[in-house]
């Protein structure tokens, strides 16, 4: 596997290392496929913002992009809220050729599936996200979604009800598992991440900490979701450094 040139990425925890080779990085993030896992991937500033000028892209760097690509490359499905997909300009979901052989060796489709969450189905069926998708996307919504929007999306996506008045994240995860999509990567947004936390569905958080002070304008990576706020404890599973950028992994604590 080859990757674009990047600054050196070294491991700080659990064991300090020399700069990691691409194969070593892949091994760090490759999941145990026998165990279903929901990962969430976010980047935030030092002062807790999920965006700069409304987008997350201003917080990352080359090393963050390498890890972003690896997380997609080892997943069965990428799950994202419709608002984030619109704001970040999501197109058709594909992974780089360097992951194709790895995926095929595990009898995985060349590209992960794309799954969106949208209560209003406010999505453009003519956008590249649908029109150029190598696999037919899934769209999770509620039974209360507008019928006309449902009809517009039906030719280009599988629209799945996951709740009556609002989307229930537990039903979303259950529907993904039924389809054999057990290695789930969620890329936001904050509201849906909040719902996942409230439902206690998060197994791992991959959090990049950018050496930027944003100034307190942007949102947090999670917003309150559900009716009950219960702290969810995670344990540090890994910590990488590239320059002043920190790339952390936090896993569900032992119960």
TrEMBL record:
InterPro entries: DHFR-like_dom_sf (IPR024072), RibDG_C (IPR002734), Riboflavin_Biosynth_HTPR (IPR050765). The keyword Oxidoreductase applies. Pathway: Cofactor biosynthesis; riboflavin biosynthesis. SUPFAM superfamilies: Dihydrofolate reductase-like. Keywords: NADP, Oxidoreductase. Gene3D superfamilies: Dihydrofolate Reductase, subunit A. Residues 37-243 form the Bacterial bifunctional deaminase-reductase C-terminal domain. One of its GO terms (molecular function) is 5-amino-6-(5-phosphoribosylamino)uracil reductase activity. GO terms for biological process: riboflavin biosynthetic process. Transmembrane segments: none annotated. It comes from the Bacteria. PANTHER family: 2,5-DIAMINO-6-RIBOSYLAMINO-4(3H)-PYRIMIDINONE 5'-PHOSPHATE REDUCTASE, DIHYDROFOLATE REDUCTASE FAMILY PROTEIN (AFU_ORTHOLOGUE AFUA_8G06820). This is Riboflavin biosynthesis pyrimidine reductase.
């Amino acid at each position: 596997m080859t990757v674009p040139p990047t600054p050196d990425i070294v491991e700080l925890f659990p064991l300090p290392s020399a700069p990691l080779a691409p194969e070593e990085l892949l091994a760090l993030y490759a999941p145990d496929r026998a165990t279903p896992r929901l990962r969430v991937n976010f980047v935030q500033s030092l002062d807790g913002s999920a965006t700069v000028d409304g987008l997350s892209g201003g917080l990352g760097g080359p090393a963050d992009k390498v890890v972003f690509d690896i997380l997609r490359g080892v997943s069965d499905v990428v799950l994202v809220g419709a608002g984030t997909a619109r704001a970040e300009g999501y197109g058709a979901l594909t992974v780089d050729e360097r992951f194709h052989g790895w995926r095929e060796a595990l009898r995985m489709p060349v590209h992960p599936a794309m799954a969106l969450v949208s209560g209003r189905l406010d999505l453009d069926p003519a956008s590249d996200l649908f029109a150029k998708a190598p696999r037919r996307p899934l769209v999770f919504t509620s039974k209360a979604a507008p019928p006309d929007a449902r009809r517009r999306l039906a030719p280009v996506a599988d629209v799945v009800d996951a709740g009556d008045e609002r989307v229930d994240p537990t039903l979303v995860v259950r529907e993904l598992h039924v389809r054999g999509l057990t290695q789930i990567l969620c890329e936001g947004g904050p509201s849906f991440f909040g719902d996942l936390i409230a439902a206690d569905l998060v197994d791992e958080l991959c959090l990049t900490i950018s050496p930027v002070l944003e100034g307190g304008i942007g949102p947090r990576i999670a917003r309150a979701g559900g009716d009950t706020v219960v702290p969810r404890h995670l344990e540090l599973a890994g910590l990488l450094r590239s320059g002043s950028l920190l790339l952390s992994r936090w896993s569900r604590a032992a119960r």
